[in-house]
Amino acid sequence: MTTEIKLPEGAPEEVVTQALVRDIDLSAFGSKGTMALITLDNSLDHNRPNTFGPQSLLALAAAITEATSRKPAAIAITGKPFIFAAGADLSALSFISNREQSLAIGKLGHDVFRRLGESSIPTFAFINGLALGGGLEVGLHCNYRTLASTAFTALPEVFLGLVPGWGGATLLPKLIGPERAVQVIMLNALNNNTMMKAKDAYALGVVDAVFEPSDFLERSIAFAAGVLNGTTTIERKDYSQDPAWESALATGKAASLKKYGGAEIASPMKALELIAAAKTNTLGAGFDAEDAALADLTMSDPLRASLYAFNVIQKKRKKVEGAPKPALARKVSKVGVVGAGLMASQLALLLLRNLKCPIVMTDIDQERADKGVAWVKNELAKLVEKKRMSAESAARLSLLISGSADQNVYAGCDFIIEAIFEELSLKQGLFKKLEAIISPECVLATNTSSLSVERMSEGLKNPERVVGFHFFNPVAVMPLLEVARTSKTDDATTATAIAVGKELKKTMIICKDAPGFVVNRLLTRFMGEITDAVDEGTSPEVADNAMRSIGFPMSPFQLLDLVGPGVALHVSQTLNANLGERYRISPTMAAMVKEGVRNFYIKNEDGSVGANPAAIALIHKGDTPSTAEQVRSRALTALAVEARMMLDEGVVSTPAEIDLCMLMGAGWPMHLGGILPYLDREGISETACGQRFHPKGSASLP
Amino acid sequence: MSRSVVLVDAVRTPFGKAGGMYAGTRADDLMVRAIRGLLDRNPKVERSAIDDVAIAAATQTGDQGMNIGRSATLLAGLPNTVPGYSIDRWCAGALTAVTTIAGAIAFGSNDIAIAGGVEHMGNHPMGELMDPNPRYLAEKIVEQDALAMGATAERLHDRFPTITKERADKYALNSQIKTTKAYEAGLIQRDLIPMAARSAELGWTIATVDEAPRPTTTMEGLAGLKTPFRPAGRVTAGNSSGLNDGATAALLASEDKAIELGLTIKARLVSYAFAGVEPEVMGFGPVPSTIKALKQSGLTIDDIGLFEINEAFAVQVLAFLEHFGIADDDVRVNPFGGAIAVGHPLASSGVRLMLNLARSFEDHPEVRYGLTTMCIGLGMGGSVIWENPHFNGQVK
C-alpha cells in the first residue's frame, strides 16, 4: 500500500479527518468480546463535514490496523455529530497535474476502504449523519450498515462529473441490484443531485437498519451484537443473474441523454460502464476499473470545469458578488405586486411563501385582481393537498394576500415589484403614479427581461429606489435572480433587493442595467445565430442539432418553444434596438408570431416528437446554407464575443458571474463550467477575443 | 380516595465522574437515554399512555433547564400529548419526583407516569449561579457551614463524637468492597442503560459501567487523604460521594393499571415523608423523615428488612445507623454499596436507591418492607417505605 501521497502543488492544506479508535464492551449488548469503534472526526463542527484527502485516508488506514490488532469481535465506523462523511476532499482534485497522482489517490481510497470489506472480522458502518460519495462508499465496503433516520445519503459523483470511484460503482450494483443502483448512482445524481432520505435508503437496500438519532449509536451496537450472536440475520442476494441489467442500464442512459440534450457525456457514460461491469466482475477488477475511470475523468477539462462550476455555485449562493453591506437593507414587511396575470401571480405566491408578509396585488379591474388572488390561494390549497404545506400555514398565508383595482393599496409597502406588459411607457407611467402613493424609501423593482431600468426611473422624485429584479421562468423553480442597478440605484435599495432575494432563496448576481442583463442577452445572441443560419438557408435540422454533442439541456429550437416565439421576438427586437445590428430580427420568427404558430416541435400522433410542418412552412429560405460545423462555430463565437463585451462594459465584473448566470439561469451544464471555461478550452475565446476568460488551470486542466 | 402505587421498573445511565466520560455529553441527552431505556424495557407501556413525566435537577439552567421534564420528554420522542415538569429538592430531586408522581397516582390523576432525575455536575458545578440571600448570614438564619455540604458533614462528626474518621473510612471502604462484589456478580449492570458518550479527542464510546468506583481502596489509602473542609477534619474525598454525572428514570403506576397491563411490580409504596433539621447538620435529615414515614405507616424500624441510604457522606449514614441502633456493617444496609463508590449525581440519586432496593426485594422474599432515604441540603431528609411484592411471609 502507498504510504505517502503528497498533495498536488498549490492545493490547499488538507483538513484532516482523524480516525479515533475505542473499545466497546459488547457484553452489555448481549454479545461476547469487544467492538473496535472508529470515530471519523475532523475536529470542526458540522458546518465543515468530514472529508477524505490523502492524510485522512492514511489516518483511517492506521485506525483499521490499530482496530484489527486489538482482535475485536467486530470493527465499526461512525462519524462526528450530525455528519458521517461528505466524501472525497475535492479541494485538491483541481490541482492534480498528472494521471499518476490521480490514479494514486483513487487507489489509496480503494486500498484503505477495501480492508473493511476484506477483513476477517465483521465490519459495520453506523451512518449517524450525512454520508455523501466517498462517505457512503466507506459504508458500502463494510459488511453491514445502520443509518440514522434523519440522515441524508447520496452518491453525487455523476452530478459532479465523476463516478463513484472508491467502490460505489462496483459494490452498490452487487449489493442492491442494477435497477436500484442506477436509481442511486445515475437518476438521483442527474436529477439535480437528489439525496436519499433514510427510509429511501433502507427501502433500496443501501442500509440494513434505520434507528432514531437520539440513541442511534447504542441501537446500532445492539444491532451489531445481534448480528454477531446470530439473533439477527441479514440476507444478501446475488444479482449476477438478475434479468433487469439491460433495462436498468438503458434507463440510466436515457436519463443521461435527456439531461444533456442527447449528448453522451463522459462521467455518466463511464458510470454506466462500471455498473454494467459489476454484473459479473470481481470486486478487484471493478475497483481497478474505477481507478482508471476516475483518473481519466480527473485528467479531463470537463471535470475541472465541473469542479469550478460547483465551487462558483456554492460560493455565490452564500455571498453575492458586489453586494452592499446587508445592514443597509430596509425591513420589508409589506409587498406590492403590480399586475395579477400569471407571472405576477407566480411572483406573489413566491413572495408570500417566503416573506410571509402582507402582499397586495392590483390589476386594471377588480375581477382580474381577484383572479390573481384566487390563483395564489388555489396554489396554496394544492400544496396542502400534496402535504407540502400544513393547513395552518396555508390559512396564515391566505389571509396575507389581497387584490384590488385601486393602487392606493400600495400605501405602506416597502417593496413593490411590477410584472405588467413589457412596454417602457406603461412602466414609466406606473412608477410615476406609484410615487404619489408610497413612501420615498419603498423599493420599486421591475421584472422586465430586456427593457431599460434606468429609463423607467427617469423623471421620478426618487430614482435611487428603482432596481431590476429579473426572475426566470418558472420563478419558483429557477434559482437565478438578476439584480440590475441603474446609475442612480442606491446601496440601500440594492441591499434591500438582495435581502428579499435571499429570503426567496435565490442565487443572485448584481449587474449593471444593460439590455437583456446577462442571461437573456447571451441566450438571444446565441439563438440569433441559429435562427440566422436557418433564415440563410441552413436546414433547421442541421442548425438545431449542430451543438447536440456539447451537452446543453435542450436544443435552440426546443428552448425557443419553451420561451415562446412571441417573447423571443420581443426580446430580440428590444436588444436589436438597444445593442445594435448583431441582434437581428428573424423573419422566420416574425412570421411564426404573425401566424400564431406557437411551436417548432410538436408531438406526433404516435407520441414521437417532430418538426411542426406549420413552422417549417414559414421558414424564410435564404441561399447561403451553413454546415453544422459552421453553425456551431458562429454560435459559440458569438457567445464569446458577447461575453467579452459584457465584461468590457462592466455589466458584471467577473467571468464567474457570467458562468453562474448560465448555470443557474439557463440550466447550462456544469461540465461546460457554465460556458466560458468551455469557450476557453475549445480555443474559441482566444480566436474570437484574443484572450481567455479564465486563466489556464482555474477551470480547466493546468 | 387513595390507590395503591407501585414501582414498575427503574433504570439509570452509568454514572460518570465530573470531567470524565460524560465531559462531552449533555445532561438532557443523559436524561433522554434513561427514559428511552426505561421504555425499551417495558414495551407493554404505550408511550402515549404516559400521563406525566417529572424530572428533577438541582441546577435548572442550560442543558438542565428549559423545563427539563417537558424538554426531555420531547427529546425522548414521546408523543406531544405527554406532558412533563421539573422538580427540585436538591439531592432528593428524583426521590421527590417519585413521591410527587406517586401522590398524583394515589389521588387518581395519573395512572402511569415517569419520575426521574439528572445531574451533570461537570456541566453544573455545585453552587453554580447560587445567590444566597445575605440575610442568611446577616440575621444568622444559618451559619456559613450550612451552605457547604462538606462542612455540614464535619458538623455531624462534631455532634456525634463517637463517629470517628476511622469509622467513616471503614464504612467507605466497605461501600467500595460491596460495589466491587456486586459488579463482579453482575448485579449492578442489570439496571444500567448503555450510554453513548463522545470525546472530541478520543471519539465515541459507550459507557456501560460506573466510572467512579475505586476497587483498590484501602484503609491506609483513605487515612492519608486530605480533609478539604477544615484542618484536621474527618471528611475526605474517600468517605464522601464524589462529583458525578448521571440520570435515572422510574416507571410508576397504580397497582390496578400495572396488573391490567401485565407490567412488572418491583415494589409497592407504603408511605413517604420529608422532614427538616438544622441546615448545619443536614446529614441528620433522614432520621426525622424516617421516623415520620414509619409513623404514617404504623411500622417500626424493626419492620424494615432492607435499607438503601444515600451515601452523601459516610458520617451521615453512620449517624442514621447509630440513631436506630443498627450496626455499621449491617448486611441489610446498602448491599450493593452506595454513592461513596458509584457516585451521587445529585438530583438523580433517589431513583438509584429504589432500583437497588427493588433488586434486593427479588433476592429477599422473606423481607416485607424496605426503606429508601437520603439527606438533603439546607437541612432536610426524605424517606420512602416500600413493600416487597415478592414477600412470601416466611422468615428466612
Biggest interface pair, counts: A-B, 24 and 24 residues
- Basic shape of chain A: globular
Please state the CA-atom Rg of chain A, rounded to the nearest Å.
28 Å
What's the total count of β strands of chain B? 12
Stretches of chain A where pLDDT is under 50 for at least 5 consecutive residues are none
Here the CATH topology of the largest domain in chain A equals 2-enoyl-CoA Hydratase, Chain A, domain 1
Helix content of chain B: 25-40%
Please identify, by name, the CATH architecture of the largest domain in chain A.
Answer: Alpha-Beta Complex
Q: What's the number of structural domains of chain A?
A: 3
Q: Which blocks of ≥5 consecutive residues of chain B have pLDDT under 50?
A: none
Q: What fraction of the residues of chain B are assigned to beta strands by DSSP?
A: 15-25%
InterPro entries (chain B): Thiolase (IPR002155), Thiolase-like (IPR016039), Thiolase-like_sf_Thiolase (IPR050215), Thiolase_AS (IPR020610), Thiolase_C (IPR020617), Thiolase_CS (IPR020613), Thiolase_N (IPR020616)
GO cellular component, one term (chain B): cytoplasm
EC number (chain B): 2.3.1.16
Family (chain B): Belongs to the thiolase-like superfamily. Thiolase family.
Keywords:
heterodimer, A: 702 residues, alpha/beta, 2-enoyl-CoA Hydratase, Chain A, domain 1, Rossmann fold, N-(1-d-carboxylethyl)-l-norvaline Dehydrogenase, domain 2, 3 domains, 8-stranded mixed sheet, 6-stranded mixed sheet, 28 helices, 47% helix, globular, B: 396 residues, alpha+beta, 12 strands, ClpP/crotonase-like_dom_sf (chain A)
